[in-house]
Design brief:
Number of domains: 2
Oligomer: single chain
Strand order of the largest sheet: 1-2-3-5-4
Order of helices and strands: HHHEEEEE
Radius of gyration: 28 Å
Distance between the termini: 74 Å
Strand content: 15-25%
Amino acid sequence: MSELANIFILAGVLMLAGEFAIPGYFMGAVGIAFVVAGGLMSLGIDSPFLVAGASILSGIASIVFFYWLGKRLTGHTRISVGSESFVGEIGVAKTDIKDGIGLIRVKGEEWTAHSKDTIKKGGKVKIIGHEGVHLRVEKV
């Protein structure tokens, strides 16, 4: 095995270890490309185009694979914050909701709510949408 092949494989393994320490796709993809290049060189393949092409393709394939795997493991959940995170939740009217507006409490927070229904203080409401920082609710 040539000395250059050993250097490529060692550099690739170090980059893969770095990827495990600080995840982010880039070092892992380059590490895989280096290991592939070193492996091909150690097999006696001395065509620079073949070694470079296989290395680039393996790096791109690893990025695609790990991106897909990451999405698969995280379940494609969308993070929502603010008023949109309450849609579908059940809350309680803190004031009478009349003339279309009032206060509700949901998940320990008080919000201004709009409703077409008249809802008495203490009544349960379902959050059906949001308009800016206000929630749209309906009587449960």
